Here is the input.
Amino acid sequence: MGRNTTITMGTDAMGTERLRLLQLASPALPVGGFSYSEGLEVLIQGGRLRGADDLEAWLRAELWRGLLPLEAAALRPLAEALDRWRQQPDPAAEDAVRDLDDWLLLQREAAELRAQQRQMGRSLLQLLAGLGWPLPGGGLDLAWPAAWAWAGLCGGLTPLARVEGYLSSWLANQLSAAVRLLPLGPSEAQRLQWQLAPLLAERAEALLAADPHDLWSGGIGAGLAQLGHGGLYSRLFRS
Here is the structure.
């Protein structure tokens, strides 16, 4: 009886974690991610990305050498500092969170992207506070990666699940934007997401063990695209 009970409880906990991960990674999460293209709109309007093959190559490049890996690698130290902060008032832990949060924001060249990170982080923290998980001190001023780390911590997600979910959420939002900008179609977008799943898993494993300060970004094209978004004559997205 005792052994069966233990197995059942473990299975229930794993099932809850998976469901919470699906909820956090869903494009339906009310944080406004659907309204940002992160430079895709510029690249597509300029003819740099013309179809599924171009888009796949771009997404792969971003997963390897964009700013996204730095943010994903930062989730573990962010969660560790947040965990210390929630257990007891600890100025050192709070400073560690805010220093890394600020450093990640500074990696984003475009003001639109920094505004996106702040807005999505604030929206997620507001959602979590409404679910009974307010940030220590009740603040709502952390950007998206730190807010995601807090969400994963509150949801009981493993460190690897936090990184996998963060990458998967980014990919889903990029594909959602691409469907509205390219003659792509939802079926082709789903094919791309399915095809990129092994790379997401590979990158998550590697980034979980990485120090974000030891990584570098080669996303110059993405940075230029994001900086140029404000100058578009017509815009569908906010970045």
Summary: The chain has one domain: 49-231. The chain has ten helices and no strands.
